[in-house]
Amino acid sequence: MTDGGRLRHIGLLTSGGDSPGMNAAIRAVVRGAHVHGLQVTGFLGGYDGLVNGRSRALGPRDVSNIIQRGGTMLRTARSAAFMTAEGRDRAASVIRGLGVDGLVVIGGNGTFTGADVLYREHGIPAAGVPGTIDNDLAGTDWSIGYDTAVNTAVEAIDRIRDTASSHERLFFVEVMGRDSGAIALDCAVAAGAEFVLVPEREEHIEQLVRAILGADGAKTSSIVVVAEGETEGGAFVVAQRVKERLPEKDIRVTVIGHVQRGGSPTVHDRVLASRLGVAAVDALLRGEYNNMVGMINGRVTLTPFLEAIHGRRELDRDLFRVLNILAT
Ligand code: F6P
């Protein structure tokens, strides 16, 4: 579709790391398109599906019974082929060959970067839906999958706390988030952790040691949440440094890992995905291209791809203060 042309056929893909609620977003895009008489083609395996022409038609019944499922029925990938100009040329021919005239891409930073490049090089318009557990995009308070991921991580940390207190142990628990500390900070507050280490804030080992001992020096078991992107080198390295300072402590490390990426999405993620999926189709129909649809203060908003990618979402600094107070 050239700018100003009528939208008839949407191409849909999920790309990057999967996140719970992507299926709910796929369902919303397909059904949101159907009510406007639009055809939908789903590309399989992210941008690889565009490059290789692996696709399937999607009607409203093809997305039945998926709202509650984790993962993505369209599968996902981080496509090396699409990173090359030749790969993108192939993708553009596939898109034009099928008569697709607008894309909805569900994912994070890399996904929106891909859609932006495709528009600049080949004029193919797109709308983006934020689907990543990292919640690191500017232009939305929430990305789809984040709520489920933090709830999964907190449930795991609650279990760790049971055994930590029985054995009077100190646990370092590493959570995902790439170079964002959003997951770690929310998990730390929600799980009643003693301390959190995130990439956005430099901490000193002495502060960490004080928090572990507690204001009265009498704490017996503690939980420290470590964001995978923090700058000390990860949970194992931090644990080793603390062991050198507190050799009497019985220390264990748990990396929660990809458990955070799976599972049935929470109500919050299902509702968010449903609203944003419909909003992405609406944005394309209005001719508003190359924006990410997001949710700010409960309202659907549009943010240009480049702003969403480069304008980093800030952590709520007050949460560090709350954590400190409650960890005394
Ligand atoms: O971006 C989502 C995410 O889960 C990050 O939190 C994490 O750093 C990364 O993906 C892991 O990627 P992979 O699944 O390729 O190991």
Polypeptide structure, described:
Helix content is 40%, strand content 17%. The protein is α/β, with parallel strands linked by helices. The chain has 2 domains: 3-145 and 265-311, Rossmann fold (3-Layer(aba) Sandwich); 147-261, Phosphofructokinase domain (Rossmann fold). The strands form 2 sheets. A 7-stranded mixed sheet has the order 3-2-1-4-5-10-11, with helices on both faces. The protein has a 4-stranded parallel sheet with strand order 7-8-6-9, sandwiched between helices. Strand 7 (195-197), helix 7 and strand 8 (222-227) form a beta-alpha-beta unit. Bound molecules: 6-O-phosphono-beta-D-fructofuranose. Residues 17, 108, 132-134, 176-178, 228, 261 line the site of 6-O-phosphono-beta-D-fructofuranose.
Rg (C-alpha, Å):
22 Å
Second CATH tier, the architecture of the largest domain: 3-Layer(aba) Sandwich
Ranges where pLDDT stays below 50 over 5 or more residues in a row are none
Helix residue percentage: 40-55%
What is the CATH topology classification name of the largest domain?
Rossmann fold
The first-level CATH class name of the largest domain: Alpha Beta
Class of secondary structure makeup: alpha/beta
Bound molecules: 6-O-phosphono-beta-D-fructofuranose
TL;DR of this structure?
The chain is α/β, with parallel strands linked by helices and 328 residues long. It has eleven helices and eleven strands.
